Amino acid sequence: MDVTLREYRADRRSRLKVIGLISVMLACGVLEVVINDVPGWVGAILISVLAIVDGVWALSLWRSRTVVRADGVVVVGVVRSRKWAWHEIQDLVVETPSSTTPRRLIRLHDTRGRKTTLPYVAESHLPDLLALRPS
Q1: Contact between 81 and 98 (Cβ < 8 Å)
Q2: Which residues, 6+ apart, have CB-to-CB distance to 111 below 8 Å?
Q3: Cα four-point dihedral sign 41, 42, 43, 49
Q4: At a CB cut-off of 8 Å and minimum separation 6, what does 63 contact?
Q5: DSSP state of 133
Q6: Residues near 115 by beta carbon (within 8 Å), at least 6 away in sequence
Q7: CB 74, CB 67: distance < 8 Å
Q8: Which of 43, 77, 91, 97 is buried deepest, with most CB atoms within 10 A?
Q9: Contacts of 16 (CB under 8 A, 6+ apart)
Q10: How far apart are CA 13 and CA 61, in angstroms?
Q11: Entry pTM
Q12: Which one is predicted more confidently, 70 or 109?
């Protein structure tokens, strides 16, 4: 039985704010198509593309998270979930993508040499995450 020890994701308030912003952007896009008297088929394509892009963005915000369980780590994305058992995880590392960005990412290095960014895991969460790892 998988017991969830920790789940790292955007808090509900932040998600609702961004989804509200996405909704406003979609409404503005539709309004722009209607106001500018775009031909029907072009407007339908533009609105469809905008709805798909905004929908994927909202879905990624709502679904993506990192789940730490007794048996390993699960990274949930828009379409798929990737799982690693604790024995498959070589290390958890803090990395800075470039020298110009102050953002720091937590990356999982597995035994096959692949790196995966853990969404919503901050540098301050790393000691807790390492403490949950069985010896």
Answers
A1: no
A2: 87, 88, 89, 90
A3: positive
A4: 76, 77, 78
A5: S
A6: 107, 108, 109
A7: yes
A8: 43
A9: none
A10: 12
A11: 0.75
A12: 109
